[in-house]
Amino acid sequence: MVSMSRNKKTHQKTIRKGVSIYKTDSSPFWYARIWVNSKNKYMVRSTQETSRIDAIEVVDEILTKLQTNTDLNRIPKDKTFSYFSGLLMKQQTAMSGKTRSERFAKDDEKIILRKDDGLDAYFGNRDINGITTYDLRDYISYLDDNRDESLSSSSKSKHLTIIGKIFKVAYEKDALDKMPLLPKVSKQDNPRPSFSEKEYKLLLKTTREVIDEEVKVRGILITDEFYYFIVFMVHSFMRPIDSEIFSVRHQDITIKDNPERLEIKVKGKTGYRTVSTMPDAVDFYQKLIRLNPDYEAKDYLFFNDYPNRNTALRNINRQFNYILDRADLKVTSGGEIRSPYALRHYSLQTRLIKSKGKVNIFNLAKNAGTSVEQLERFYLKNLELSDELVENLQTF
Fold first, then answer.
1. Which CATH number is 197-393 given?
2. Domain boundaries, the chain
3. What is the fold, at CATH topology level, of the domain defined by 78-172?
4. Is residue 108 within 8 Å of 114, Cβ to Cβ?
5. Which of 39, 248, 306, 309 could hold 242 in an S-S bridge, CB 3.0 to 4.6 Å?
6. Cβ neighbours of residue 381 under 8 Å, at least 6 residues apart?
7. DSSP, residue by residue, 82-96
């Protein structure tokens, strides 16, 4: 406690740590002097009481009010975790749909703003400088405690990645003394479900059958366009999501020669890229044009009748699931559930096999909008070496 001034303060009495009352020569009333953490200074208030006992009662009322308003312990807004998470979301929203995919900001926002156990719900009002590695480990444990089943390792890593981004924003704003270490989450890789060559041929055969039978799924006819969607996916390596295959318009496609291919401008999961397809994709594209001869440059490549691309995606998922069930291909021999993503996985795996190991894995990863690490961990892990691959492995 700061000592009182000899000339002005008299009868100073300390009530508790950081709280005292005193009188001055110029007033008959007692004054309260209270240390306020959030403002890093003392607050002075007149009790309007001449009796010391009555003044102490007034001080208790002031303290109660301050505690109710959390002023004694409130962290300045521009020092809180939620302040910097807000800055991160603002930055990423500005990048979404421009230098990054449209979902770039939304995916992180879901984790930050999740009501029950999102980052803001857990860390929001805390001083970002007071959050330690131990606190982050506690949060990861809390995520599991708040669920019937443990959160996957990849999801936990995603939470920590976003936390790291928020810390980086605070550090760049000179509000963070040091970057805390992010705890590591042990990862158990699950290779992506794909198709064998035999299974893929069965998928195509079943698709042709349901088209011939004019099958409808929830009132929507399965047509040749769906068949070309499947084969186009396999020959273009794109993701079956609204920001990739379902966002492609005719104006994004250029036919190239030497070698024959399509070049497609894609706003993908990892940002903008140009996809170079396999040669057969050119033939599939031309057949799609014959199906829709009146197309305009701004029309979507697939299922243009559905301007809402999420609706188009849901319809395709339902039709794909119907065909998988009919062909008994929905579940892999290892118990994994297939989705349209299995087409992308099959295309990546097949490219390595059919190139007999000669494909440049870096170029393959770049073209597919992924990384060499991802290819090795998820797509190529379970591939067996064929005679040709072994031969190329042994070649000097």
1. 1.10.443.10
2. 9-68, 78-172, 197-393
3. DNA polymerase; domain 1 (1.10.150)
4. no
5. 309
6. 189, 191
7. HHHHHHHHHHHHHHB
Residue the block writes with tokens 């031309």? 286
What is the DSSP secondary-structure string of 329-369?
Answer: -SB-TTSPBP-THHHHHHHHHHHHHHTTT-S-HHHHHHHHT
Amino acid at 329: L
Are the C-beta atoms of residues 189 and 282 closer than 8 Å to each other? Answer: no
What three-state secondary structure class fits 80?
strand
Q: Does the pTM exceed 0.90?
A: no
- Beta strands in 270-325, from DSSP E residues, in sequence order: 271-276
Q: 28 by DSSP, 3-state: which?
A: coil
Whether residue 2 is predicted with pLDDT greater than 50 in this model: the reply is no
The three-point CA angle 319-383-389 to 5° equals: 125
Hey, what are 268's tokens? 């993908």
Are 241 and 269 a contacting pair, CB within 8 Å? yes
**pLDDT attached to residue 7:** 41
Calculate the CA dihedral of residues 360, 364, 366, 370 and round it to 10 degrees.
Answer: -130
Cα separation, 23 vs 8, whole angstroms:
8
| Short-list 24, 25, 30, CA closest to 53 | 30
Decide if 275 contacts 266 (C-beta within 8 A): yes
Residue 379: predicted pLDDT:
64
Tokens of 306: 């559905």
* CA distances (Å), origin 144, targets 152, 154, 223: 9, 13, 44
Rounded-to-integer distance, Cα 345 and Cα 232, Å: 13
Measuring CA to CA, which residue among 81, 73, 187 is closest to residue 135? 81
* Nearest-angstrom CA–CA distance, 215 and 211: 6
pLDDT of residue 393 exceeding 60, the answer is: no
CB atoms within 10 A of CB 54: 13
